Amino acid sequence: MSRDQRSTIALETVRLTKTYADQQALDGVSLRLEANRIHGLLGRNGAGKTTLMSIATAQLFATSGEVRIFGQNPYENREALSRVCFIKESQRYPEAFNVNDMLAVASTLYPNWDAAFADRLTEEFRLPRCKKIKGFSRGMLSSVGIIIGLASRAELTLFDEPYLGLDAVARGLFYDRLIEEYAENPRTIVLSTHLIDEVSRLLEEVHVIDGGRLLLHEDTESLRMRAYTVTGPAAKVDAFTAGRRSLRREALGGSAHAALLASSPSEQAEARAAGLETAPLPLQQLIVHLTGHNGTIREGLA
Ligand SMILES: Nc1ncnc2c1ncn2[C@@H]1O[C@H](COP(=O)(O)OP(=O)(O)OP(=O)(O)O)[C@@H](O)[C@H]1O
């Protein structure tokens, strides 16, 4: 790979594993996050998302494997880490600090810090500037993280479930400001979330982690085109899904309903030609089907 090709990859992991005592959190994850895209890191509780992001940002050591940020090993690498902002789920802040103190500290950590943007976001999220963080609600703490993440203008910004406790209005504000900011100042964003329906319009690439493995990586648009459902007489549904990538089948009396991931652009037309109704499968439903209810990993999708 040439130097130019490598520089378009913001984050890369190669066969990354992490074992905590006897718990294997990551099991050979190799992924490449293209720069200047919005990536969704999706998966169920305990899938390994936080572990992956913590290792990628040098906050945790991997058991084995490699990680590179903009082509560099991030460990004890101040230059590489100055390009990264990681807003963790349940991020803790010094309790004696207020918002002004936090923003002042953040301005020294992030070379591209935009103080005017941080001020505007503080107003919009209605955060008291002088109240001690100690008295903040869970939602207010999430707002602090979101403000720092957005105003950091870090080339690689990772948000791990950034909106715990935030109401729908504040989450909407976050999505709107994120997309505006991204349009004006393209950068690499990684969003780890359970609220897939809410964020699906923002995501350009989807990475699904399940049981510590990368289950799927695909452009969101292509995934939207491929994920679909068929409904019709059970015998016709079964005949159509046989040998195809069927994720789920439900029987409804004499008819059946199945979710599929198309292998070819003509597949949905073939389903209609076979007398079945087709409909798009929302991303959230796709992820639910992919990651299953019994934790089974469906091989061969990544
Ligand atoms: N410090 C730790 N000690 C022991 N096990 C851990 C530790 N941190 C995480 N784990 C385990 O590793 C696995 C992956 O956890 P991780 O927090 O990375 O998942 P996640 O996808 O971020 O989950 P969530 O969406 O619930 O935050 C889980 O089984 C978890 O219990």
UniProtKB/TrEMBL annotation:
A GO molecular function assigned to this protein is: ATP binding
Domain ABC transporter, first and last residues per copy:
11-236
Q: Which UniProt keywords apply?
A: ATP-binding, Nucleotide-binding, Transport
In the UniProt record, the signal sequence range is none
PANTHER family, alphabetically? Answer: ABC TRANSPORTER ATP-BINDING PROTEIN ALBC-RELATED
Question: Know the name of this protein?
Answer: ABC transporter ATP-binding protein
